[in-house]
């Protein structure tokens, strides 16, 4: 059976801040239309890896390729063009508190696409409707619940119709029902648009419900120690991986 081509390839990546190495020798690929999970215990470098993948931090070694095009080998203009291909939902949703939801979502349209105000508002309203927030366009982030803020952050990440969406702990701080609704929304988004999704999370329900493939980062060895479909990783030879996925004790 043929596999779709790699959409994203992490090649020999080492993450470091000065002499402090966070992770080293990371090698994995993400296929187009896949939901890929980055997991591991707290402090292992999951969010740091995501920041390197989206071009916020330069790796100490290695590169991240998008359809074969390197993120870090090229110049800044090439890197900015690559960044236009993905959207990001940060852990705290990162909405501007002084702006309405509509203004938050329309902001990247004005900045990255130089879209006129009326068109940007129309697109923002459409994206908010897609995440179930029709009627809340004029609300400020402080006026809505945490789950709704996450959905508004997703609408903003979707504003530029990205090929790839990155999620950093999307369920953090949410109650189980809101978390499940967000998982359902992520699945619906992938199934309806074919978007490639990279998910940083430690939430077991999300890992098993959403993940097609995954990588496990280990804080002690400072490298990846398992990769593959989450259900198969439960049978890993690595006790730490099994304990994480079964929430047992070593």
The count of DSSP E runs of length 2 or more, i.e. the number of strands, is 10
Broad structural category: alpha/beta
The CATH architecture classification of the largest domain is: 3-Layer(aba) Sandwich
Question: What proportion of the residues is helical, as a percent range?
Answer: 25-40%
State the major sheet: 6 strands, mixed
Shape: globular
Instruction: Kindly report the CATH topology of the largest domain.
Output: Rossmann fold
End-to-end separation: 38 Å
Give the helix tally. 9
Number of domains: 2
Rg of Cα set? 18 Å
Low-confidence stretches: none
CATH superfamily of the largest domain: P-loop containing nucleotide triphosphate hydrolases
Top-tier CATH class of the largest domain:
Alpha Beta
Please report which band the strand proportion falls in: under 5%, 5-15%, 15-25%, 25-35%, 35-45% or over 45%. 25-35%
- What is the average per-residue confidence, as pLDDT, rounded to a whole number? 90
Characterization of this structure:
By secondary structure, this protein is an alpha/beta fold. It folds into two domains: 1-85 and 164-250, P-loop containing nucleotide triphosphate hydrolases (Rossmann fold); 97-162, no CATH class. It is 36% helix and 25% strand. It has helices at residues 46-53, 76-83, 101-112, 117-130, 146-157, 176-193, 204-210, 230-233, 239-246, and strands at residues 6-17, 20-31, 35-39, 61-66, 69-70, 86-89, 164-168, 196-200, 213-218, 223-228. The strands form two sheets. It has a six-stranded mixed beta sheet with strand order 6-7-8-3-9-10. Strand 9 and strand 10 form a beta hairpin. The longest helix is centred in the last third of the chain and has 18 residues, at 176-193. The chain is globular, with a radius of gyration of 18 Å. The relative contact order is 0.17.
């Amino acid at each position: 059976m043929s596999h779709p081509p790699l959409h994203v390839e992490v090649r020999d990546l080492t993450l470091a801040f000065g002499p402090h190495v966070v992770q080293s020798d990371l090698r994995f690929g993400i296929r187009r239309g896949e939901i890929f999970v980055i997991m591991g215990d707290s402090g292992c470098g999951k969010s740091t890896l995501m920041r390197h993948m989206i071009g916020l931090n330069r790796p100490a070694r290695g590169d991240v390729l998008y359809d074969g095009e390197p993120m870090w080998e090229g110049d800044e203009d090439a890197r900015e063009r690559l960044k236009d291909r993905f959207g990001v939902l940060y852990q705290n949703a990162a909405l501007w508190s002084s702006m309405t939801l509509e203004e938050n979502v329309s902001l990247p349209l004005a900045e990255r696409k130089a879209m006129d105000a009326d068109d940007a508002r129309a697109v923002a309203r459409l994206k908010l409707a897609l995440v179930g927030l029709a009627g809340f366009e004029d609300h400020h982030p402080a006026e809505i619940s945490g789950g709704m803020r996450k959905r508004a952050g997703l609408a903003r990440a979707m504003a530029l119709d990205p090929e790839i969406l990155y999620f950093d702990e999307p369920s953090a701080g949410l109650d189980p029902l809101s978390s499940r609704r967000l998982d359902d929304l992520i699945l619906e988004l992938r199934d309806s648009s074919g978007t490639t999704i990279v998910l940083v999370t430690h939430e077991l329900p999300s890992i098993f419900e959403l993940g097609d493939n995954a990588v496990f980062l280990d804080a002690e060895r400072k490298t990846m120690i398992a990769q593959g479909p989450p259900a198969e990783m439960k049978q890993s030879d690595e006790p730490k991986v099994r304990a994480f996925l079964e929430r047992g004790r070593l």
